[in-house]
Design a protein that fits this description.
With 454 residues, this protein is of the alpha/beta class. The protein contains 15 helices and 18 strands.
Length: 454
Amino acid sequence: MTQFNPPRRAITRRQFAKATAASALAFNYIPSSVFGANDRINYAGIGVGGKGAGEVKDLDAAGATVVALCDVDHKRAGGTLRKYPSAKVFKDFRVMFDKMGKDIDMVSVSTPDHMHAPATAWAMHLGKHCYTQKPMTHTVYEARYLTELARKTKVATQMGNQAHAGEPIRRAVELIQAGMLGEITQIHAWTNRPIWAQGMTSRPPKQDVPETLDWDLWLGPAPYCDYNKAYLPFSWRGWWDFGTGALGDMACHIMDMPFWACELESPTSVEAVQSGNTPVSPPKWSTITYQFPARTGAMTGKKLPAVEYIWYDGRKGTKQNGPDADIMEGEQHRKWDNVIVGTKGKLFFARKSNTMLTKPNGLLEQFNEKTPKTIQRVRSEDFEFIEACRGGKPALSNFDYAGPLTETVLLGNVAIRAGVKFEWDAKKMKTSDPKADFFLHRKYRKGWSMEMPV
């Protein structure tokens, strides 16, 4: 495994969380006029087809000026390229930074997972603000590296787990931290994904590379393999070299609210049960159990108990993988994506819905009436990020928060791939089993690095 040598820590996550929590109490809404809404931010999009196309559009609407667009397939990205004819166009973000670095203030990274860290790291080394899609990185090592680099460079950052900026999550965090459920002891989170193929045992055969695609650039730091349409534009999520499976795709969304509300940091152990792991592809379903220790909340200062956090994805046969009937109490999996269990009751929650349910009845109504809104409300995650770029309050899914969340999520993939339960030492960034340590990071292909050439 590559030796971890992160940039020097500027502040601790606990110090940052306390400062952010204190500032959040000062207001409930960030108007777009506070920090100079007419001051446009020069913006470059990296990965601007598919999901990236929407991100360019949204950041443009939030106050960014699109000056550069980078994508390895100009045909797939064609709609975005035509919409912004004055933007300079590139296929390699390294070339883009070399030629236009002085003209760029901020970037978004909407590439496949395996390219998130190199593109984001280069941007931060150059002092550019970064909006990076979830999961923040492809490996645990990369998540720690980017978290430390953000502290060192002090650029504005945000991970694209969009619902973090929405009313349902922010309200649920307030209610849980107000004591609605008592002490939280267990959390369940789930998704029906993958909706793409997983569990493959071998690679597909070689096919001709489309003329508009630079396959070598698309591979980037990943090991070389022959092109096949099974990898892209969407199904790369089901291949370990490029994606992080159903867990990586959805857990930074779904595990987010309880992770925030319960002020979790690093698990002490991780264990996975799965349909069958292969060297090339994530399993068709998995259940991952994280154990978190008792702790003092960085935001609230409260003494909090140990928590068991269980993640479920995929389907076992024809049945969705998820909590057992005694946990669900007659509720349907498809309606919710979280159950938070406390000493006073349960909260059924879905990140995109303002409808919540507590059992026993009456808890929600009681606490909703008396619990004030203490977390800032924003127009969208894009507006929140642009205001941070202008020098305003940090986006609340900045890398100081999103890094530990991403680490936690990706430790589940380490457990899947290693096939062992392990203890996790977050300070030393080491597991209790060499088989698990092996999957904390991987060697980049020649010519690729998170470090910039001198």
